[in-house]
Amino acid sequence: MKTTMPLFGFSAGIATAFAYLPHILFLSVIAVSQSKNIALFFLMFTVGARILGDWIFWSQMFPSRMDSRSGGKDWRLSIKNILLSNPNSIRATFDIIVDFGIDALLVFMALKASAPPVWIFLVFSACQAIGAPLNGMMIYVFSKKNIRLFSMVVTALAVFAALEINGVLPNSVHADMFGLSNIEKSLAVLLIIGAKCLFTGITVIGKTSIAEIIGKETISELVT
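Below the sequence we write its predicted structure tokens.
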């Protein structure tokens, strides 16, 4: 049975953008007022915004779409088995965890480069809010496989460049490639964070893959 899945990728991106909006407004006010920057305070709210985006998608958007397709039958009963047994869902979960770790590394690199904390999290949040819906749509234009590969390449370049700018790696091949060695370290790492958040969609792809796997397998079980 061939099943047409809703645009889960776009929904995941919209949920992310919606969750970050209040945080972006808050950070913008702090940046304009030049209030004291407290990195830990901003970090907690940024992580909270990310969790809120996941909550909006998984507890509101995804269930409503699944309920409308299941004809009133309970599709939730088999989710646990699907998530733990399907290799694609396991890989998607791993991708999400690794992507979160890379984001944390880039934020740390920006702090090490003495970038203002409010600008670090403002750039991160704003670019996430813009990039998530765009990447959520792009996976239906260029396929998840192609966007995932592109995202992995961009992410690797971002990590190498950030490490080079902070002197963790001895050479500056990747930083020189994009002209980042010729500007202030803090600005260079902010640009790297912005590019990574705008042009990579690993987390959105991961959530989309998990949602589609659950959708296909549970719906097929209900109709058989």
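The longest helix spans residues 39-70.
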